[in-house]
Amino acid sequence: MRTRRRGAKCRYTWNWITWTICAILSSVSGSAAPPDSLKLVWLSNTTLTCNDGSPTGYYFRRGSNSEHWVVYLEGGGYCWDTASCRARWRRRPALMSSTRWPRVRRAPALLSAERTANPLWHASNHVLLPYCSSDMWSGTRTATHAVGGFSFTGRLIVEGVLEDLLRAGLSGRLMFVGSSAGGTGVMLHVDAARRALRSKRIKVAAVSDSGWFLDRPARDRRVPAAAIARLGHSLWRGTPPNSCVRKHVKEPWLCYFGYRLYPHIRTPLFVFQYLFDSAQLAAEGVRAPRTRTQWEMVHKTGVALRTSLDSVRTVYAPACLAHGALARPEWLAINVSGISLPRALACWERRLGRAKKTHVRGGCAPRRLVEICSWPQCNGSCPRLRDPRTGEEVALATLLQSFGMDVHGAAAAMGIDAGAFSRMSHAELFPLLAPHV
């Protein structure tokens, strides 16, 4: 493995004096890594790059359990044609370039070395793949065939990282994890990774966090999701699994949608998916629902997501309006039917024989944990909703009122003052409403 060269992040500065100053400052400031951090390692295959041609790599920390590796694919959306890629470059250049990558990064929740933040995998070897290819980790378009100045090599980057990790001692068990676009990337890669590592006797399993998207029609003048996938597939030179492509020969881009791809995945997969995924809703044109009509649209999307998960063997689906969980500290608090997400993951991994035979507090969880209630935020462990305009938390009573609920009537029926009802927290109000859900 190649560690980052001194002054490497300064290579794009405009003259040698600036470069020298930057390199000196980088070497001084980077001498001591903060606790719970991952160190940047450049990919040995230098032909593979971010969108803008800057070098790519990964962040790494060796753990005390040499036989367990957690490889995490970051998410961050995608672009699908020249116009959307140029817009992405203007708004979010950090997702298309490595020029500002720090020497070290603080670990997200599931890659933390602290037991309190990461009770499952704190002792594992941790690998974080920053997302800078904008292609759902599926592209094979190298710099020599760039379009609009951008290359798309997400699939090749993942393969290159695995090759580097083998040289670094990858062995035992590999947990492939990803969130959002990274969650989709995990589903696209996991079977190929398992086959590639089979001869090394490395056991592979995967967790897809919020990467289960639907090709539902948009409710405004937006380009439909399937049309965007078709454009992206062509731009990226995408390579979904052959088993899925054979099923959709004329429309291979449909393999970017979880419910279409899942039947072709043979590697053990744990699917985490919020039933009211905010990224899915945004793709359908519902970003900040406030009216009863908008909430009815949200409900229909929830029904569609729930139905699409019917055939999934191992799934954890809270009825929350949110997106992405495993990289966030609140992943420890999420529960469905009283079973926490860490406990569900621990039980799943134990069933696979990929975890130590330790006692799981409360016994093992069912394979399928899909929220029973059918309206958003009915789960008391959901991440709090915030008004996108003010940043303030949206009270549950206000949320219910936007559904069309008569808050004053409900308060009167319960014998509660309407003002007190409106000020109640989620934890106080939900038990009163639960019998009526």
TrEMBL record:
Which superkingdom heads the taxonomic lineage of this protein's source?
Answer: Eukaryota
Task: List the protein's name.
Answer: Palmitoleoyl-protein carboxylesterase NOTUM
Keyword annotations for this protein, in alphabetical order, are: Signal
Which Gene Ontology MF annotations are present? hydrolase activity
Give the signal peptide as a residue range, or say none if absent. Answer: 1-32
Q: Which residues form a coiled coil?
A: none
Q: According to its UniProt record, what is one Pfam family this protein matches? A: PAE
Keyword Flavoprotein belongs to the record? no
Question: Which family does this protein fall into?
Answer: Belongs to the pectinacetylesterase family. Notum subfamily.
Q: Respond yes or no to whether keyword Signal is given for this record.
A: yes
What InterPro entries does the record point to?
Answer: PAE/NOTUM (IPR004963)
